[in-house]
Write a structure and sequence with these properties.
It is built from 16 helices and 20 strands. It has 462 residues and is of the alpha/beta class. The chain folds into three domains: 66 residues, no CATH class; 258 residues, Rossmann fold, CATH 3.40.50; 104 residues, Orthogonal Bundle (Arc Repressor Mutant, subunit A). A six-stranded mixed beta sheet has the order 8-10-11-14-9-15, with helices on one face. Strands 1-6-7-2 form a four-stranded mixed beta sheet, with no helix packed on it. It has a three-stranded antiparallel beta sheet with strand order 3-4-5, with no helix packed on it. A hairpin with a 5-residue loop joins β3 and β4. α11 crosses α15 and α12 packs across α14. It is globular.
Length: 462
C-alpha cells in the first residue's frame, strides 16, 4: 500500500482513554496515508510525531479509521527507561540531502577512524536505516577485529544515529528474533562470535532471512493450546542489522549479505577516548534531522534498478541497490563510489572462494576437460587433485617420511559430494563409478562456475 492514500485520521489528544479490546500500543510507522513515529522529548516524555500532507503534528494518540487506538511507546516501559531503543527527538530541518550526508559522515569520522570508502558506506547506511521499509532487500554492516580495535566504539557511534536502534551485547536466538519482530528498527549486535555450531546455525537462519522482506522465522510453541494443538508463530526479522565480531562468520551466504571492514590496532587514531555529553547532543540533533529525512522520502522515494556488468555476484548487486538509491539522493559521484565499493566486495568474495577446496576441484575438472573421452570419473578427479593440491610426502614427528595416498587426502566420495552438492554438476554412474559428462551443458556450467570463483585460463593452464 502507498503512503499517498487520502484516508484521514481522527487525531485525539486524550491521555486517559479507557482501555478497550481495540486498544494497542505501537511506535512503528503505519502505512495508511500517514507516518506516526514515537519521539522522545528532552524531558524524557514520549509523543507521536505525525507526518501527513507535508505537515508534522505532535499528539498523544491516534484513532484509526477502523476504530483502533494507537499510542506511542510509553516512557515508563523498560525498553525506554533502559535506553535499549534509541528514539529520535522532533524532526529538525536539514537543508539538502548532500548537506545531510556530509553531516552524517563528519559525525562518524569525528568519533571513529576508518577508510574514506567505508566511511561513505556507513553514512549512506545510516540514512538507509531511516527508510529501510521501502526496499525488498537490505545489506548488513559489519566490522571484524581483535580486542582493542574499536568494534564497540563503531557500534556505539552507529547506535546513536540509526533508526530506532536496539543494541545487544549478547543474546539468545529467541531474544534476537523476538526483539526484531516486536520493535523493528535497526538491530545492533556486539560480539557476534557464534562458536557454538547449533547456535551459529540458528542465528545464521535469522540473518540469512532478515535481509529480505516476507521471509519470517517460524517457531513452534512449546505448549499446546486449550485444544491440545501445537501452533506455529511467525516472526518478521526483516530490517537493517549491524554487527561486530572477532572473526569471519563462516557462512558464505551470510558473508555475501554484508558490507564489511576489518579493523586493526592503531595507536595513532585521533578520536575522543570516551563519548561524553557533546557526542550525545550531536547525535540527538542528527537523529532529528534524519527523522525529517524519513518523513520527506519514505512515501516518495523513486526506487531505481541497479544494473552493473562490473559486479559479478548477483547477491552483492542485490544488496548494493538500496545504498545506491540513497546515494542517488546525495549525488552521482557518491552513487558511483557505492558501485566501486561493491566491486571491491565482489572481488574479495571471488578471492575468498578461489581459496577453497571446491575451487581446486573445479580447476582439476577444467584441466581434465581437454583430455580424451566423454566422461570424467570421480576417481580421476581425486587422483589429479592429489597430484596438484594434495599433501604428498610429509616428515612425521619421529623423523620418518610418510607418503600419503590420494584416498586419504580427498576421497572419491568427498570429490563426488563437492561436485554434486557444492558445484551442482549433474552426476551419473557406470561400471567404473560416478562420473560427469563432457557435454555442452556441463561446459556451460563450468564456465559460469569459473567466473564465480575467479578461475581464469592462466590459473587452469599455468
Amino acid at each position: 500500500m502507498s503512503l499517498r492514500h487520502n484516508l484521514k485520521l481522527r487525531i485525539t489528544n486524550f491521555t486517559n482513554m479507557p482501555k478497550k479490546d481495540n486498544y494497542e500500543i505501537a511506535y512503528v510507522s503505519e502505512d495508511f496515508g500517514i507516518i506516526a513515529e514515537t519521539i522522545i522529548k528532552k524531558n524524557g516524555k514520549t509523543k507521536f510525531a505525525i507526518y501527513q500532507d507535508g505537515k508534522v503534528e505532535f499528539k498523544n494518540q491516534l484513532v484509526l479509521p477502523d476504530g483502533k487506538i494507537i499510542e506511542p511507546l510509553n516512557e515508563s516501559l523498560d525498553v525506554i527507561k533502559s535506553k535499549f531503543i534509541t528514539l529520535p527527538p522532533k524532526p529538525i530541518p536539514y537543508g539538502t540531502e548532500g548537506e545531510l550526508f556530509t553531516e552524517v559522515k563528519s559525525f562518524f569520522r569525528k568519533y571513529f577512524s576508518t577508510t574514506k570508502g567505508f566511511r561513505e558506506i556507513v553514512a549512506l547506511y545510516i540514512m538507509l536505516t531511516w527508510i529501510y521499509e521501502r526496499f525488498n532487500d537490505l545489506p548488513y554492516l559489519r566490522v571484524i577485529g581483535t580486542l582493542g580495535t574499536g568494534k564497540s566504539r563503531f557500534l556505539k557511534t552507529l547506535s546513536a544515529c540509526t533508526y530506532n536502534s536496539m543494541m545487544l551485547g549478547s543474546a539468545s536466538v529467541s531474544a534476537i528474533f523476538r526483539t526484531i519482530d516486536k520493535y523493528k528498527g535497526t538491530f545492533i549486535l556486539d560480539e557476534a562470535n557464534f562458536k557454538n555450531s547449533e547456535y551459529s546455525s540458528e542465528v545464521a537462519k535469522i540473518f540469512n532471512n532478515g535481509n529480505t522482506k516476507d521471509a519470517p522465522v517460524a517457531r513452534m510453541r512449546e505448549k499446546a493450546n486449550s485444544n491440545g494443538e501445537f501452533t506455529t508463530d511467525f516472526f518478521q526479522v526483516f530490517g537493517p542489522k549491524i554487527l561486530a565480531s572477532r572473526e569471519s562468520f563462516g557462512d558464505a551466504a551470510f558473508e555475501s549479505r554484508c558490507f564489511a571492514q576489518r579493523l586493526y590496532p592503531n595507536k595513532n587514531i585521533k578520536v575522543p577516548i570516551s563519548l561524553g555529553e557533546e557526542f550525545w547532543k550531536e547525535a540527538r540533533i542528527l537523529r532529528g534531522k534524519l527523522l525529517a529525512f524519513r518523513f520527506k522520502h519514505y512515501g516518495s522515494l523513486n526506487i531505481k534498478e541497479l544494473a552493473s556488468e562490473k559486479i559479478n555476484n548477483l547477491r552483492i548487486l542485490q544488496i548494493t541497490q538500496p545504498l545506491w538509491n540513497v546515494a542517488l539522493l546525495v549525488g552521482k559521484e557518491v552513487a558511483q563510489n557505492v558501485i566501486e565499493e561493491a566491486m571491491l566486495m565482489d572481488r574479495d568474495l571471488i578471492a575468498d572462494q578461489s581459496d577453497t577446496t571446491e575451487a581446486d576441484v573445479l580447476i582439476v575438472i577444467m584441466r581434465l576437460m581437454d583430455q580424451e573421452g566423454d566422461k570424467i570419473h570421480m576417481k580421476k578427479i581425486a587422483e589429479k587433485h592429489f597430484k596438484s593440491f594434495g599433501r604428498g610426502s610429509q616428515i612425521t614427528e619421529d623423523g620418518l617420511t610418510a607418503i600419503f595416498d590420494y584416498k586419504s587426502d580427498l576421497s572419491e566420495r568427498k570429490i563426488g559430494e563437492i561436485v554434486g552438492k557444492v558445484l551442482h554438476l549433474k552426476k551419473f554412474r557406470d561400471n567404473k563409478g560416478i562420473f560427469i559428462f563432457k557435454d555442452q551443458v556441463t561446459k556451460s556450467a563450468l564456465n559460469n562456475l569459473c567466473e564465480r570463483y575467479g578461475i581464469t585460463d592462466d590459473i587452469i593452464y599455468p
